[in-house]
């Protein structure tokens, strides 16, 4: 593989307007990292295509010059997926930001990949429709990045993740071929489901330039509640009781003591800070059903040991309570210079055990870990608050992370529930998958990208 040479950059300037080809040091700095702590690398050149044809032309040039390509959306990824290789070509899709069609007859939305996630739901809301996946980063992340990471969000328990809404994608393959996979049909079994191969492929198999998404009628009512606990076990028991009562809320999120304290300090929402666990609960749907489910959920929270349960009076207050969870990462990030956000997922039945294990690891390794996450999905975000310049502490974090990963796998979990493998988790992938499925994945990568042009060094060692 080569780095971007002067003649390669000159060729890019013949394909794209020169102001959409960045090469100066100060211009490249913002594209040298993503949201993952302690990972950075300077690319050789960053380009901003406006059309799929321009993406394909850049990929063909990169292929002919053997320059590796890293695709980038907004760079909010938390596994190092869009961190460049030294001297590589970064294709940044944020200027491909058009919503092409909102088809109310077929309940689909077609958009370019650089559209910001929240803008998709905002466009739906205007006509009474709904795009449910709502990653915490939805005000900044792109829909292409969401599809490439198969991102989840706070509503995943009831509505699923990005994959559940992708009906079609336009993709540029590593040889520069443009193709469309999928369509607007509700049913389609014509051959392999190729679009699904690209959902969650982290920029290693192709560059997604357009998407067709399924959208839903917007729920007419929503109710948000908070329950406060003096033990994590009681919070976990409430979740099991709600599911056993055959209620599937749209949101069941939790924050531990440290995260609650940091959020209150940051956002001044009026949360009590002497709790071991805070659970955010939300139900949506028909108004009558919402009222009934909310009453049942509050009763179940009390019956399972919540010492305080509150319901928001209206949507505005609900949004304020939900902000407690949405602000968790930013609030924790203020405590120490470096924030390392983990993303392990265990079967729901193992949640309390996993949270207790993380607490024990923090004590034994003398580390500051705030934990929050999607309690209803079993997806936890233990967040290490540290300083990357303190090498001794970074070694203790590595050891702690090894233990957390081993315990996750032992409990039947996964090393990443939504942030992807990228650079951050690739050392653990084989441990989770085993030789057979790891090699199957590699053989797919080799078949589609024999030159290893797209995002080399990500996902696989
Ligand atoms: C504060 C905060 C909160 C977050 N909350 C959540 C959350 O709740 N749930 C969640 O799942 N994630 C969350 N994330 C992680 C992140 O926002 C998601 O992974 C998001 O989907 C990344 O989108 P992006 O546009 O920033 O992509 P980038 O970070 O630019 O790229 C991510 C990966 O996708 C690839 N890629 C990007 N665009 C394309 C494309 N068009 N075609 C092919 N490959 C592409 C890149 O090469 C890279 O591997 C959060 C991050 C932050 C900083």
Q: Please state the average pLDDT score.
A: 94
Gap between N and C termini: 17 Å
Uncertain spans: none
Rg over alpha carbons: 22 Å
Q: In one word, what is the shape?
A: globular
Helix content: 25-40%
The portion of residues forming beta strands comes to 15-25%
Query: Structural class given helices, strands, pairing?
Result: alpha+beta
Annotation field: number of helices:
15
Catalogue the ligands: flavin-adenine dinucleotide
Report the count of strand segments.
19
The main pleated sheet reads as: 8 strands, antiparallel
Brief characterization of the structure:
With 461 residues, the protein is of the alpha+beta class.
Any key phrases for this structure?
19 strands; globular; 461 residues; 8-stranded antiparallel sheet; 21% strand; 5-stranded antiparallel sheet; 36% helix; alpha+beta; binds flavin-adenine dinucleotide
Folded structure, characterized:
With 461 residues, the protein is an alpha+beta fold. It has 15 helices and 19 strands. It has helices spanning 6-15, 25-28, 52-65, 117-125, 143-149, 156-159, 194-198, 232-244, 257-267, 287-303, 315-326, 328-332, 351-364, 391-410, 426-448; strands spanning 21-22, 45-47, 69-72, 89-92, 99-103, 108-112, 129-130, 166-172, 178-182, 207-214, 216-217, 221-229, 251-256, 277-285, 308-311, 338-341, 344-345, 368-374, 379-386. The strands form four sheets. Strands 12, 13, 14, 15, 16, 17, 18 and 19 form an eight-stranded antiparallel sheet that branches. The longest helix is centred in the C-terminal third of the chain and has 23 residues, at 426-448. It is globular. The protein starts with 5 loop residues before the first helix and ends in a 13-residue tail after the last helix. 48% of the residues are buried. Residues 34-35, 70-78, 81-82, 93, 113, 135-137, 141-142, 144-146, 148-149, 151-153, 202-203, 207-208, 329, 418-419, 422, 455 line the site of flavin-adenine dinucleotide.
């Amino acid at each position: 593989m080569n780095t971007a040479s002067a003649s390669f950059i000159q060729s890019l300037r013949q394909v794209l307007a020169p102001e959409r080809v960045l090469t100066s040091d100060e211009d490249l700095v913002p594209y040298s990292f993503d949201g993952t702590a302690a990972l950075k690398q300077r690319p050789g050149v960053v380009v901003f295509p406006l059309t799929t044809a321009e993406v394909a032309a850049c990929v063909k040039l990169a292929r002919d010059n053997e320059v590796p390509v890293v695709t980038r959306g907004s760079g909010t990824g938390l596994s190092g997926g869009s961190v460049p290789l030294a001297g590589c070509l970064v294709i940044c899709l944020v200027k491909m930001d058009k919503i092409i069609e909102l088809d109310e007859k077929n309940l689909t939305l077609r958009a370019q990949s650089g559209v910001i996630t929240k803008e998709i739901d905002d466009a739906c809301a205007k006509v009474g429709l709904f795009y449910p996946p709502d990653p915490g980063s939805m005000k900044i992340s792109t829909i292409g990045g969401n599809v490439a990471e198969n991102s989840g969000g706070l509503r995943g328990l009831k509505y699923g993740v990005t994959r559940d809404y992708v009906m079609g994608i336009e993709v540029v393959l590593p040889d520069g071929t443009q193709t469309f996979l999928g369509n607007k049909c509700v049913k389609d079994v014509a051959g392999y489901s190729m679009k699904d191969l690209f959902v969650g492929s982290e920029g290693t198999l192709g560059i997604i330039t357009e998407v067709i998404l399924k959208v839903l009628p917007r729920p007419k009512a929503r109710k948000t509640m908070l329950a406060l606990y003096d033990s994590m076990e009681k919070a976990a028991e409430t979740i099991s009781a709600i599911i056993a009562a055959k209620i599937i809320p749209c949101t069941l999120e939790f924050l531990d003591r440290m995260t609650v304290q940091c959020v209150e300090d940051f956002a001044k929402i009026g949360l009590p800070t002497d709790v071991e666990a805070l659970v955010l609960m939300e139900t949506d749907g028909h108004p009558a059903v919402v009222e009934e489910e909310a009453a049942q959920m509050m009763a179940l929270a009390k019956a399972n040991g919540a010492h305080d349960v509150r319901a928001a009076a209206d949507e505005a207050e609900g949004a304020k309570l939900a902000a407690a969870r949405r602000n968790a990462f930013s609030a924790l990030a203020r405590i120490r210079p470096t924030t390392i956000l983990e993303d392990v997922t265990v079967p729901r039945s193992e949640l309390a055990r996993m949270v207790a294990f993380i607490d024990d690891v923090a004590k034994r390794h003398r580390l500051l870990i705030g934990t929050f996450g999607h309690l209803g999905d079993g997806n936890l975000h233990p967040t290490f608050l540290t300083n990357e310049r303190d090498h001794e502490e970074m070694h203790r974090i590595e050891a702690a992370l090894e233990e957390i990963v081993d315990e996750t796998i032992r409990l039947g979990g996964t090393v990443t529930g939504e942030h992807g493998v990228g650079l951050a988790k690739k050392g653990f992938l084989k441990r989770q998958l085993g030789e057979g499925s790891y090699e199957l994945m590699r053989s797919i990568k080799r078949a589609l990208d024999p030159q290893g042009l797209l995002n080399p060094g990500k996902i696989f060692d």
